[in-house]
Every structure is written in C-alpha cells, then in structure tokens.
Protein: Histidine kinase/HSP90-like ATPase domain-containing protein
Organism: Actinomadura violacea
Amino acid sequence: MVVEGAANLGVGGVCVWRLPSDESGPAAARAYLQRTLAGLGLGRDVIEDGKLAVSETATNALRYGHPAPHDRPHAPPELWVWARMVPSPQLVVSVFDCARTSMPYASGAGLLDERGKGLAILEEFTAGWGCAATRSRVAERAVSGKAVWFLLPLPLAWPGRTVRVHPGTAAQCLLLCVTRRGFRGTRSSDERGVSVVALPGLNVWVHRRHFCWWASATRYVRRPLVDLQETAEQVVRHLDGGTGPAFSP
C-alpha cells in the first residue's frame, strides 16, 4: 500500500508504504523517502542523510523485526513519514515492524565498525531518533509492533506550512487514525465548533488550532492541528499501554 503526496504533509497528512519483506526492502525505503524529501524541496545533504538513516532502519527491521512464532497476526515492515511543528519543524520518519519486544539498543559500535553501527548512524546523521510501541497503519486488522523513528529538520518555509487545517476535519481524521488501528471511539461537536474525540479512558479536544488532552493526571498536552499524525501516535501508544520512549522528546 502506498499513500504518497508530500504536499499533504502540511495539513497533517502522512505518507505510508508497505515495504518488501526481503532484501529489497531497504532500497525501496530509500527510493520512497528520496521522492518525498525531494517533493518538499529539501537540500541534497538532508536527502542523503535521510536515505542513509532509513536504509539502516529498514535493514534492522529486515534482520531483527520478525515477531515471535506465537505472535499473530503480523504484517510486513512499513515506512511512515509525517511532519510536526512541536518542538520544532521536523519530519518524523518511522519504520514499523512486528517485533514489539525486540527493542534496539546502542552497541557502542562506531561509524567505522563493520557491525552494530546502525544506531551510531542515526545518532550522527539525524536530528534525533527513538523507538516506541505502536500498531500497523495498513494491516486490515490491528497488528502490534514497534516503530524505530528518526527526525530530519524542516525549513520554516517548507511547502504547505501556511495551509490551515480545519478543526472538524482534523477531529474526524484523528478518529479514523485511531479506530482503524483497533480502538473504539466517537466524535462530537458543540455550538462553539469545538470537537471532542472520545476514546477508551481518554478524551481529545480539538479546538480551532490545537489538539488538547490529559496524558496523565498532571500532564496536559497541546499540539497544533498540523501535528495530527504525531497526536495519533501518542494517542495509540497511550491506549495500547506501550512502554519505552515516546515519539516526542
């Protein structure tokens, strides 16, 4: 499955690809990402850094991203790309696999070592990286796994940045992003135009320019509507009871 269109990233969209489950997976990931970054008008250095990082991430998913034999259902690796404005304009590039319990760890290998250098490459050539429990975006049924992600900087004037997202549309898209991954939810609106996406144990308020929700009893989160996909990932992780570092720093 392929959902392309770099222009849609400026209105909370996401590019999603199902990667081949063989040795061609990393090359496919590089090609998809290069097309997306070029469509955003990013510089050659950022594009090359992104291709290097996604190649390593997709290779790790191919080598170590297989689920345990008892874990069903499962799905091929996936590549996701979306934009976020908080804490700064960035692209989030994620590779999903079904091995939720197999989290990456730093081996101490350097860039010149033959093996174990994948995370060192992410550390050196991106604006940050991490891993989080999540669910497939394209599988027909809810499939659990993890996503290893990295960040690439976006210029302040990147294409689509000035497009305003309609709050009603943002609320409906958020609901679809969450429910198609196996969670129940509803959406309602009041006379002021404020929407509420009601999910199991969590309500997300959608105002004219922001998503707002209580991530815990003491942590109130507020994100711009363009951060739709980032919000969806945080909500899915919250509902799924995932552990490990969150998508946002």
